[in-house]
Amino acid sequence: MNKTAHRFLLSAGAGALALAAWPALAADAADEAQVGGSVVGERTEAPKSSQEIVVQGEIGYRNRTDQAEPVLVYDEEYFQRFEPLTAGDALKRVPSVTFLSDVIESDGPRLRGLDPGYTQILINGEKVPGPNPDRSFFLDRIPAELIEQVEIVRSSSARRTGDAVAGTINIKLRDALSLDGGYIKGGGLLFDDGELKPTAGFYYGGELGPGRVLIGANVQGRYNPKEKTSFRYGDSPENNPDFLTDDFDNREDQSDIRDGTDYAFNGSYALESDVTTFELSGNYVRTDRTETERSLEYNVATGTPGPIGFDGDEEPGLLTDAYQLEDIEQENWGIASKLSHEWSLGKTAFKWGYARFNDNADGIETEVDFETGEEGAPENAEWESELVVTRNVDEELSFALDHAFPLSAGVNFVIGGFLQEKDRRADITTFEQGDELDGRAWDQFTVSPAGLIDADAFEEDDRALSTIAEDRRDVYALLEGNHGPVSWEAGVRWENTETRIVDLSADPEDAETEYDYDHFLPSASIKFDTGAGRVTASVARTVRRPQFDYLTPVTLEGELGDNDLRGNPQLMPEMAWGGDLGYEHRLGRTGVIGVNLFYRKVEDLVELVNTGEEGDEGEGSFVLQPRNVGDGKVYGIEFDLSADLAFLGLPDTGVFGNVSLLDSEITDMFGERRFNDQSEYVYNFGFIQNLRQLGAAFGASYRKQGKAYGRIVSEEVTTTYGADLEVFVEKRIGDSFTIRAVGSNLLDGKKREVFNKFDTIEDQEDRDFDEYELEAERAGPVFQLVARYAF
C-alpha cells in the first residue's frame, strides 16, 4: 500500500473513531462542569438564515472578540457587497495586508508588508499545503463565496504553530452550524477586452437526522487580460538626466492573458449537544487555466516595425518575437474532523485532517531572435523552443489533542499536542528544440512563433526530481484566565521539526539532506476592559523555517535571472521576538475604532549572498547562496475604523477605513534598507449607504498601497501600484432576492516597476548600470452583475 493510501485510510479511521465516540459522549450528564475561555475559530452564534445572507438589511462591521489575544474578526457581511472573487480580494479591506501580485490579482498576502512566508495561513484553523517552497499559500485559490469569516491574529499563542512572525490569517469556511436554508447565485463578469465570464453557486444548510448538514458548490470564471510595456536603457537618471533619449536600448510590448475556471465544493456535517460537538468537513478546489503571452522586442521607442525590409547596416526594428503558452491544472482538497467534549475534568478536543495539493503544468515558450539573422535575410534568424513539464504533489496529515483543566473560578490550565506529517514530491522536466528559420518555418512564424513547434522533436534537456518529508511533533501548555474586565493567557510551545530532502537528480554526495530543529516558543497576552474601551498587550516568540529550495546543496542554473542559486544545508531558521500593544473603543452599538503598535526583532535573518563564483551565464552572472546574515527589525502602527454615523443622525450610513504605516531595518552588503518588498504604507476607506425604504444600497471603497523596494546582488526593483476604486449598487426584492452590480479597478490602476541591473558587485556599489528598465502593467476595469435567491 502506498503512503498516500495509507494516510487516507488512517484519516478515515480517525474520523470513524470520533463518530463512534459521539453517542457515548453526548449521553454524559448535561450538568458537567463548564470550562471558560475561548479559542480562535470557535463558534459562538446560532446559524444564520439564508435570507440574512442574501438580503443584508444591515451593514456589516468589524467584530470585537473576548479572548485575550489581539484578534480582528470580519464576517462575510463585511466583504460581500463588494463581491470579492477570492479570499485574497476580500483581504484587501483589512489592515496591514499588502500584495506584490500582478494587477487585479491578490495571491500571496504580505501581512505587515513582509514576504508571504512570514504569515501563517490557516483554513478552519488548520495549516494547508501549497506549491510554494517557502510553505506559503496563495489565497486566490479560495473562492470568496465559501468564506464565513476572516480572522486576523496579530500575535501568536501556544495553541497554534509558531510559523507566524508577521501574524496569522485564519479563513473560516461555512460549516453545518453556520447556515439555515439555502440559496443560489448566478451572474457574470465583464473584462476590459470584452470577455464575459460566468459565476454560479449553490448552498444549503439544514437539519439531517440528529445533526446538521451543509453543502456548497461554486463555479467561477477567471480572467486577466494584462498588457505590459518595458523600456530599457543603458544608464539611469542617477547618472544622466537625459537618459530617455541618450541611453535608449530597446522596448518590449507584451500581452499576457490568463483564462480559466475555478470549481469549488465544501461540505460539513455536525452533531451538537450541550456538552459535545462533532464535525466532519471537506473542501475541494480545482483550477483549470491557460496563460498565453506574446512578447515583441523592438529597437525603437515607438511604432511597430517588422523584420522585413531592413537594409544596409541597420539593425531590424523587431529584435525578438516570443510566444508562451502554459496549461495549468491544480487541485486542492482536504477532509477533517473535530470532536470536543466537556466533562467533569474539563474540556477535551481532538482534531485530525488530511490535505493534498496537486499542481500540473505544461508550459511551452518559443522565441525567434532576429539579431542573429543576416542583414536583409530575417528568415535566417535563429529560433528555439522550450517545454517545461511540472508535476508537483504536496500532502499533509495532522492530528491534534488538547485538554483544558479548570483550576479555579475563571482560570484554566491547557495542555495539548500536535503531530503533522508532510510529504512533497516535485518533478520538473525541461525539453528543448531549435534551428534557423527556413522558408517553411518563416511562413509558420508569420502566423505565430508557436507554429514552429514540432511536438515530436523535443529532446529532454534537464530533469529535477526531489522528495521532501517533514515531520512535526509539538506539545504546549498554557494558563488562561478571565476575571471580569481582565482576560489573560500565558504559555509555551515546544516544536520539533525533522526534515529530509532527497534530490534524485543531484550527485550522490549531495542527494540527501536532513535537518532536526527544536524550538521553545513562549507567548503571553492580556486584555483590560475600560468602559467602552479595551487595551491589549501581547508578546510572543515565533519562527520561520527555511524554504525547501534554500536547503538542498544543489546548484540551480539560471534560477535567479542570470544568476544561479545554490542551497545551503547549514541554514538555520529565522527566530523572532515580537510585541503588540493596542487600544480599541466601541462606537455606538456596532462601531469600533482601534490603534495598534507592533514590533518584531528577527534573528538569523536569511538573505541571498554572493559566493564570489561566476554563474553559468558567464561574466556578469553569479552563484548566490542563502545565508543567515544577522538581525532585522520590523515595526509600525495600524489604525482601523468600522462604524455607522448614528451620532450624526445617519444610522444607515456605514463608514470603514484602515491605515497601516509600515517600516523595517536590515543591513546587507550595500548598507541599510527595509525588508525586501515591504510597502511603506497601505490604506483603505469607504462607505455603505443603506436605503431602507427603497430596498437598496450603494457604496464605494478606495485602496492605495505604498511603494516597495527590494535589493539583491546585481538587481534592485521598486514597485508601485495605482489606486483601486470599487463601487457597488444593489437592489433587494422582498426577503429572498438581491441583485448587485459592482465595478472594480475603476481607476485603471497600473503596476509599475523600476529595475536597476548591474554586472558586478563593484558596479552596483559604484552605480555603474548594466541596464535600467521601466515596466508598466495594466488590465483595465472589471464589472460584475450578480444575483442571489434564498429559499
UniProtKB/TrEMBL annotation:
UniProt-listed Pfam families: OMP_b-brl_3, Plug
Key words, A-Z: Cell outer membrane, Membrane, Signal
UniProt GO cellular component terms: cell outer membrane
Subcellular location: Cell outer membrane
Record's signal peptide: 1-26
Species name: Croceibacterium soli
Residue intervals of the TonB-dependent receptor plug domain: 66-168
Span of domain Outer membrane protein beta-barrel: 475-702
Span list, region Disordered: 227-257
Name of this protein: Outer membrane beta-barrel protein
SUPFAM superfamilies: Porins (SSF56935)
